[in-house]
Amino acid sequence: MLEVRDTAFKHYFGFIAERMNIFWNRVEGKNKLTDDSILKEHKFTNVYRVLDRVSQYLISEVIYNPTESSEEEDIFTRIIVFKIFNKIETWEYIKINYGEVTYSNFDPERLSRILTELQIRTPIFSAAYMMTGSHSRYNHLKTKHHKWLYMVQEELINGRLFLDILKSKSLEEVYVLLRNCSFMGDFIAYQYATDLNYSNCIDYDENSFVMAGIGAVRGIKKCFKNLGGLSTEGVIRHVYDNFEFYAEKYDCTSIKLLSGRDLKLIDLQNCFCETDKYLRAKMPELSVGNKRIKQRYKSVNKPISYRFPPKWGVNEIKSSSWNLSHQELTLF
Predict the structure, then answer these.
(1) Please, what sign has the CA dihedral across residues 175, 179, 181, 182?
(2) Which residues have C-beta within 8 Å of that of residue 56, sequence separation ≥ 6?
(3) Which residues contact 12 (CB under 8 A, 6 or more apart)?
(4) Which residues contact 72 (CB under 8 A, 6 or more apart)?
(5) Mean pLDDT score across all residues of the chain
(6) Are 309 and 59 in contact (CB under 8 A)?
(7) How far apart are CA 182 and CA 131, in angstroms?
(8) Which of 6, 193, 231, 292 has the most crowded Cβ, counting Cβ within 10 A?
(9) What is the rounded distance in angstroms from the CA atom of residue 239 to the CA atom of residue 246?
(10) Which contiguous run of DSSP H or E holds residue 40?
């Protein structure tokens, strides 16, 4: 039987409630965001994955940018190249020095040379994901970015993976197709499948499939004494199915979510990862893996409009100010 550790799991719902309060306070331009000392001092992602800075940029500037091609194969290529680095500054450097990235003009050699020049001055990969750079098929190439870009050419473009994804029947199938690519582990393949699902290239139920990252696994282990035979993904689905029950149990029934958009499996997965980080400070005696929160919070006020994939039917949210973190997120 699934056995909850109430002393920890209540903070999962407490995190969701207070992190959403911070989001809405930020949208309204309030100076005081929270009284929670842990959330004040450390960097945490949003409750909704789509609200985070890089996801917002991906939607506005990479997927639905009106100045760039709306052909499915070009959107697919842009998403994959952007997500390899997952860093806004790297993408903007590519746009300036390479031009528009399309399915037909993709040139891994030229892109690699451009990024090698940038790498001399600054990191080109985000610290958010742990991106492997080792695979026997590409070990003849020197740099990690060259290996990844060459893999895109060989496996995703020449291998016609894009067409296979278009013909897929489910989000899980998209995940499996991506997972079979060199360098892509379980979590990265799931993240990429989710990002592709933001576009019109595919359109699958977000709650049809979930894959827990290692941070979420740690969070789940802290919140539950016994999984009762469930997989970590099964636990995430259990929480989704019983969200209102647990919210009432932990006195979190007033959580202000997005209008017309409930939390999806990927959001709950993400919140387990963030709860793992939160509990490192709140309940350090629950030691599972990492000992401390790696990123500290630092912000600059900047207006932002939050946009969503049009197919969701969720209205744009305009904020009077946005606290833009100078720190990179870590999901691990």
Answers:
(1) positive
(2) 50, 304, 306, 307
(3) 219, 223, 271, 272, 275
(4) 162, 166, 199, 200, 201
(5) 92
(6) yes
(7) 11
(8) 193
(9) 8
(10) helix 37-41
What span, in angstroms and rounded, lies between the C-alpha atoms of 125 and 3?
39
Cα separation of 155 and 53, whole Å?
Answer: 29
CB atoms within 10 A of CB 235: 24
pLDDT digit string, tens, across residues 60-116: 999 999 999 999 999 999 999 999 999 999 999 999 999 999 999 999 999 999 999
Neighbouring-strand partners of residue 141: none
Asked if 44 and 277 touch (Cβ cutoff 8 Å), the reply is yes
Our CA dihedral for 203, 208, 214, 219, rounded to 10 degrees, sits at: 120
Tokens for 240, please give them: 């989704």
**Angle at which helices 265-282 and 232-241 pack, to 10 degrees?**
100
At 306, which helix (H) or strand (E)?
Answer: strand 305-306
pTM: 0.92
- Supply 315's token pair: 């209205």
Q: Which two tokens stand for residue 244?
A: 């209102």
Q: How far apart are CA 180 and CA 186, in angstroms?
A: 10
Domain positions in the chain: 3-51+209-318, 53-207
Cite the beta strand spans of 186-282 per DSSP E.
224-226
The rounded distance, in Å, linking the Cα atoms of 273 and 72 is 32
